[in-house]
Amino acid sequence: MLGFSVRTASAFALVLAISASLVFSITSRTRAATTNAFSAKSKSDDRKSSLLVSHRAVYELSLAKSIGNKSPTAAHGRIAFDFTGSPCDGYVQNFRQLTELQPPEGPTRISDMHSATFEGADGNAFDFKLQTNIDNGPAESVDGKAWKAADGHLLVNLVKPARNKFDLDAGVVFPTEHLRRIIAAAQAGENVLEVKVYDGSETGDKIYDTTTYIGRPIAEPAVEKAAHIPELDNVRRWPVSISYFEKGKKDGEPNYILSFDLYENGISRALRLDYGDFVLAGEMSSLELLPEPACSK
Question: pLDDT (tens digit, 9 = 90+) per residue, 77-120?
Fold first, then answer.
């Protein structure tokens, strides 16, 4: 779940960079998934969060919608997502997105984005590494750590793209905590959740305002064969849509919107990545549940 300036999609190289960094948590940019304005404490905060299952999922990307004469005419790609961890040891996410976009003129553009993150079990510490390559050009990297100070402010120590240390707002959550809050809100029957999110994306110095809309539980079975496993038979899922905004600009258009069906155990299906001028759809092609680490919590 990352933030970018999608409204300037007329500059296709920027559009491609946006597509490349669709990221963390989809739980987030996945980037992921995500929600809840700390300025107003959510009713979900005091509830016990659901257990997030360790899993590996692959999604096939295709162009679902294109608007205007400067948007891509074709697109395809793949997202590979690994999530492991526990409430004892914290959570690890490994994410890769390979995307090919065909502009109205010129050659196909290819982006390849990798990310790896670790989030502490208590949601107070976050390590992140992100690397993006466009058309086999030089890699753009972000590498750093973030943690919450005693007063709630966010402290960031960046190694790349340049060494830097700085403070950010209080009341910010990291991607996995964001996902847990979405699930808690869905379980409680809440429809809207707002939160400030930090995921280390772009140059590692931004916080995004997010608004998540949660629909009613879905009764119909999933269409993808990959989701037809016994472990998901009785697991509730909800339609979720997360809008990502530049900090302090929620009255305007979001940078992008990430929509998906969210299972109660943290698995996502039916991705939809809306960049304003074009939309990518992600269909789950494989799903593997991974061994769960022992945890007494």
Answer: 999 999 999 988 999 999 999 999 999 989 999 999 999 999 99
Enumerate long-range contacts of 290-293, CB under 8 Å, 24 or more apart.
Answer: 290/54, 290/55, 290/56, 290/82, 290/84, 291/54, 292/53, 292/54, 292/86, 293/54, 293/84, 293/85, 293/86, 293/88, 293/89
**Whether the model pTM is above 0.90:** no
| Residue 228 token pair | 């037809």
Token duo for residue 8: 């300037």
- What are the backbone dihedrals phi and psi of residue 12, each rounded to the nearest 5 degrees, phi first? -65, -30
Euclidean distance between CA atoms 55 and 63, whole angstroms: 26
Contact between residue 43 and residue 194 where contact means Cβ atoms under 8 Å apart: no
Q: Where are the domains of the chain?
A: 6-84+93-105+171-289
Consecutive H or E run containing 179: helix 175-187
Q: Which residue has the tokens 């849509």?
A: 241
